[in-house]
Amino acid sequence: MQLMLAPMEGVIDHTMRELLTSLGGIDRCVTEFVRVTERLLPSRVFQRLCPELANGGCTTFGVPVYIQLLGGQAGVLADNAARAAELGAAGIDLNFGCPAKNVNRSDGGSIILREPQRVHAIAAAVRASVPGHIPVTVKTRLGYEDQSLFLDIVRGIEAAGVQEITVHARTRRNGYRPPAYWEEIARAREVVSLNIIANGEIWNPADALRCRQASGCQDLMLGRGALCRPDLPRLVAGAVTGNAPEPLHWPEVLPLLLRFFELNLTHYDARFAPNPLKQWLAYLRAYFPQAALLFEQVKRLRDPAQLALALRAAMTAATPHSHPLKTA
Fold first, then answer.
1. Which architecture, in CATH terms, is 250-317?
2. Residue 105 to residues 27, 56, 67, 207: CA-CA distances in angstroms?
3. Per-residue pLDDT tens for 163-172?
4. Of 98, 211, 217, 228, which is the active-site residue?
């Protein structure tokens, strides 16, 4: 089994990838999407979104990072894929799953799923433009309005010669509302032979095991669940192998928060460094009740020095017997 970290726009950037891969369990990451419209982008765009290019296309902890491209025109996507490969990308991923209205209005993301032939043409053009040793993968949904074209989409992707498909088991109309229809992925596995990665509504190890059974997929992609429980990849891997590790407790999460904040201070303007931390606390409070209390304490703080003091004070106050709130 392999576990992938999902590309979440505006949330899982290189600093979050660095932090989460430090905990183990993640086999691959994907960048936030690189928006491609009508021109070949300069190298600095790829290097800004994927600074791991300077480290052989991997995080500090050796986890490969694929560059994700989003757009609707095969030719220009192919040109940009070739440039990303030249810069040292570990792989190229194509985004046909983004449900955002502004992205869809600009001919990107899941709106292209209305035309399976365009999905095929884009994937084929990108695959042809990238050296054979560099993987090309696709992230998709079950469809746009409904699932009626899903099998045509995956057949076209396979015919394009890509290496893998990740399927978010919902349509664009479903958005992110539960449930995820994992059993629909099993239909795709009956008509294509390439590897399929299942994604959607995996919040805990039990969800991961149910997803693998319903979809028939060995490999999984984790997104919001890994933000709410940063050790979720490690816990899922342990559940599959039958060697589950001890989960993180709140006192062990607090140093991760401080480390994440310090990473953001290193890479971003200090004025904006508090924002990703507050955003992550908003995710963490879904599992750790203490995160909600800390969020209330820091949500109005803008001075990085004050925020760092608040984090250190929380670390000092935390007891070794704090435990996360268990979810179903």
1. Up-down Bundle (1.20)
2. 33, 35, 23, 33
3. 999 999 999 9
4. 98
